[in-house]
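Page header: ASSEMBLY MODEL / two components / 406 residues total.
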Amino acid sequence: MPQLDPNVFSPQIIWLVISFAILYLVMAKKALPQVAKTLGERETRIATDLDEAESHRLESVELEAAYEKTLAEAKAEAGGNLAVAREELKQGLDARKTKVNSDISARIEIAEAEVNKAKDEAMGDLENMAVEACRTIVSKLTGDDVNEKTARKAVKAKLSAALN
Amino acid sequence: MSHSPLDQFKVKTLFELDIAGFDASFTNSSAFMLAIVLLISFFVIGGMSKASAVPTRWQSMVEMVYEFISSMLHEAAGREARKFFPFIFSLFMFVLFANLMGMIPYTFTVTSHIAVTFTLAAVIFVGVTVLGFINHGMGFLKLFVPTGVPMALMPILIVIEFISYLTRPISLSVRLFANMMAGHTMLKVLAGFVASLGVFGILPIVFITALTGLEIIIAILQAYVFAMLTCIYLNDAYHPSH
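Prediction written out in full:
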């Protein structure tokens, strides 16, 4: 076995030490710090990106809450406006209704008064006519002249009996 | 032409070199070690050269390996062992690239040499032991004292624990070395049958193809096992009590 030849030990050991020392120095001083730096940078980058995403998420949640709040306020305001408008409308309607009603009743009263007046007038005419007729008839029949007062009294009694 | 299945493990000197009286000749093994270092550096630095938050495929591969080793170290040895991450990363990548590179025909497999694997294991063993004593002082010796065991069994268990601790560098290095060597030798032996069987040489070729897939899995698995065990040993240095 060539491996057990003692003559090859010393050169191999010496060159192993030399080459491994070079390798170790290159790795420890140059290569590995570069890898560590890159990995660290990536980690930092990912962490900051995640932080940023989280803050964006929080922001969107806030915006959503603000939106919901505005929407609720607008809804409440609209509801209030509607109620006010309805109330106003109702009041206007009621006022007009009352006015119209009072107009109508006033006109009815006027009309009733006119009717009553006409009725009274008519009744008065009827009474006078009846008194005249009564006196004429009595004077024609008896020749007596019944005075107006007596005639009117009789007519009134007869008329009220008839009307009632 | 060499035909021995073991010839692939031969260390060939490319040019002679001497450092402080030790033979430091530049060999094919040295060349492959340097190539491994270059390849790993190219893989990691190249993948991160245009690093961005959204990775390219290459960058993803680098990041996957990084996070895989990182979580393995964290789970096995805890937070305190974090400062050994560059070492565990280098170790895993070195063994992985050495194993995988050896799967390419005509290459030399660095990790198929006990001298290499044992050096790595010995450094880990000594390092972990020293670290354990630095962190816990004599308290590190609690590692050899299992809890919840009758006092009568204690002496035997302490001896067993101590021996198992001492054999760690051997088991760690031999596991990797033997796996690599056995796999490569077997492939070479089977490849030798192809020519001698003539037309029926197709059978060993099919078999070699399947075994190559298996060897690639073993190459990755052994690198993982080597790094994982190192993490577990590191854990002992930080948390010695059972």
